[in-house]
Amino acid sequence: MPKKIKVRETEEGTTLYSIDPIIMLWHYEVNYVHSYAQDSPFFTALSKGKLLGSACTHCPATFATPRGHCMNCGKKTQWREIPAEGVIHTFTTCYFGGEAFLEETPYTLILVAFKGFDTLLLSRLIGIEEEQARIGMAVRAQFLRNSKFLATDVYFVPSV
C-alpha cells in the first residue's frame, strides 16, 4: 500500500460573502523594490519641501508633472522649480478612497494651475470644509515633515 502523503493544513477557514458566484475575503501582501528612475528628482524635491516640474529644452512647453520628454515636440526636458502658490483649476470631493485615504474620506482632490506652467498638478486640498473649495481659489503647497517619497508628500491649503 502506498504511503499517504498530506499537505500541512491550518485550522483557519475562509470568509465567504457569496456562494454563487463565490466571493471571499482574501488578504494579499507583497513587498517589492521600486524605482522612480528618471522621476527621482521630483520625489527628492518633495522631501526637501519643493515642487519640481519640467520644461522642454527645445520649445516653450512647461509641465507641472514630471516628464522626461516634451508632449508637444518629443525633445528632452529639464527640471524646473514650481512656485509653491497656485490656483484651483478644478476640484472634486471623493467620498470613497483607497486605504491610504480612509481616515480623510471625504476629501477634496484639486488640479492646481501654476503661473509659468502649461499643465496642472493633482493633489489634495486640506484645511477647509468641502463646500468651501472654489475654482480660482489661491492655494499653497505644504509638505509632510517626514517624507515618505510619495506624491502624497505634498498637499495644498488655502492661501491666506
Explained architecture:
The model has no long low-confidence stretch (mean pLDDT 92). A hairpin with a 7-residue loop joins β7 and β8. This protein has a five-stranded antiparallel β-sheet, with no helix packed on it. The longest helix is centred in the first third of the chain and has 8 residues. The chain has one domain. It has one helix and ten strands, in the order ββαββββββββ. With 160 residues, the chain is mostly beta strands. It is extended, with a radius of gyration of 23 Å.
List keywords for this structure.
single chain, 160 residues, mainly beta, five-stranded antiparallel beta sheet, three-stranded antiparallel beta sheet, 10 strands
Topology:
Elements: E1 16-19, E2 22-24, H1 40-47, E3 51-56, E4 62-63, E5 77-82, E6 85-94, E7 107-113, E8 121-125, E9 138-143, E10 154-158
Antiparallel strand pairs: 1-2, 3-4, 3-5, 6-7, 6-9, 7-8, 9-10
Task: Give the structure's gist in a few sentences.
The chain contains one helix and ten strands. By secondary structure, it is mostly beta strands. It has one domain (40-158).
